[in-house]
Amino acid sequence: MRMIASMEAMMGRTTEARPRKAANVTLPADLYEEGKALELNFSRVFEMAMREAIRVERGKRWAAENADFIASHNAFVEQHGLPLARHRMF
């Protein structure tokens, strides 16, 4: 629900002035028709979806690139506990 609300809020907002590139996107006809009927701004919806897809993909790649360190750190914590655990207030 929060994602939908933030998307709706962004629909009416103009994007900041930056260089733009045209891109052809093909959609199933029913999706196109419903988007048009709802007066969605296809460029803004696509831009938001691309930003989210890029964020997710970067996260996956970061996790893959750092998998060895993450596994090593997790093994250290399992063996020795959290480094500053004695200072925790909760």
Structure description:
- It contains 4 helices and no strands.
- The longest helix is centred in the middle third of the chain and has 24 residues, at 42-65.
- The chain starts with a helix and ends in a 10-residue tail after the last helix.
- The model has no long low-confidence stretch (mean pLDDT 87).
- It has 90 residues and is mainly alpha-helical.
Which helices and strands, and how do they pair?
Blueprint: H1 2-11, H2 29-37, H3 42-65, H4 67-80
Short description:
The protein is mostly helical and 90 residues long. 63% of the residues lie in helices and 0% in strands.
* Total beta-strand segments: 0
What portion of residues is helical? 55-70%
Give the terminus-to-terminus CA distance. Answer: 32 Å
Low-pLDDT windows of residues: none
User: Which geometry do the CA atoms define?
Assistant: elongated
Pairing-aware structural class of the strands and helices? mainly alpha
Q: Hey, roughly how much beta strand do the residues contain?
A: under 5%
Mean pLDDT: 87
Order of helices and strands: HHHH
